[in-house]
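Can you give me the bound-state structure? Components:
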Amino acid sequence: DGGITQSPKYLFRKEGQNVTLSCEQNLNHDAMYWYRQDPGQGLRLIYYSQIVNDFQKGDIAEGYSVSREKKESFPLTVTSAQKNPTAFYLCASSLGGTSSYEQYFGPGTRLTVT
Amino acid sequence: AQSVAQPEDQVNVAEGNPLTVKCTYSVSGNPYLFWYVQYPNRGLQFLLKYITGDNLVKGSYGFEAEFNKSQTSFHLKKPSALVSDSALYFCAVRSGDSSYKLIFGSGTRLLVRP
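Here's the bound-state model for the whole set.
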């Protein structure tokens, strides 16, 4: 988990509220990613960013939004449009480029919406 | 399209015995393959990767993986399992497009009994 911080570890929200999950990295990585993990399933990519001020939708972007104003930060907003927001959210980063650099993950944020 | 399959939801092994966690893949072009481990309520930790070269790749915590091109497999192995190896293991393959996305398998839970 070193080098990537996610806060808070646990987050509780009422249905209909937007919520923003924080992700910060001090690894000087160019690329950053957000994944969602549900019980019994693998990781599904929500958004990713290969460079500052640019990001792309992943496989399940509906109901989510991101920004990448700084290299170190890639916050994720879970909007009220997301039908099933309760999940474990993981942020990751990598060196990017065309080489096959591994991704490094933060400790995750568990979001519960009631 | 790139894909990864982990055919076993759970693998049970006695401490001290060898362990194998299976992974098969489907890619166009050269495969870039990864193994990660996840402990409860934690982020994923990188174990090892195959890019090119020797088919037997050594990684962290005594784990290794064998790349088999003809069988399109990348099985994770360890000669002698520890109780502390009990965790959730993910195989991943890098997307074949210009992004750096990783495509993850559904995960295999390893249970090492004393």
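A couple of observations. Chain B touches chain A through 22 residues (CB under 8 Å). The radius of gyration of chain B is 14 Å.
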